[in-house]
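Shipment paperwork, digital attachment
Item: protein structure file
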Amino acid sequence: MKSLREYIEELRSLDQNNIGSWPTWAYGFAIILVCAVIIAIGTWYFVLPKQETLERVSAREPELKQTFESKQRLVANIDAYRTQLEAMELQFGALLQQLPSKTEVPSLLNDISQTRIASGLEEELFKPRPENPQDFYAILPNDLIVTGTYHELGHFVSGVAALSRIVTIENINIEPIEQGDESGELRMSMTVNTYRYLEDAGDTTQPAGSKAQ
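Attachment content:
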């Protein structure tokens, strides 16, 4: 068996212009060395740069998996969501039909006045305030002061709530007409809000199948 020194001497004596004359062990060692260099270069230029990308993608794997599962659940329930959307559109259309148009607002105010009369109340003040436009409707506040008994006031509020159009009452204040008055007469001040559909809001604000009043 050759010593290490003998191997080194043979390496020094190898003819680089005649590789075929090299001994088998030297030829195999050269092939291994060349392969190692190629692998090292490939790793440095191709594998290592991708390693950082792989680590970033691996770090995002839980987040992406959670997003996928969430979207998968949405897809699985899409029919139920469509059914709910159709029901919401029908409900919205029904509510929209309770909003009068601009030409119908005076009739609604007259209905409120008739409800007051039917309840037996006396009117001290009725003062419309400027309307407050919203997305597809406008709020029309009206300052109203009426007088009557407790039961008459309750009958009026119930009657307003029973109207076919949407009417809300807020800022209610009830107090006796005069201190020490035993007649039971009360004064109720309030803001009565009526609503109307904004015809110029465009069809995009209406659900399918609904129609402006």
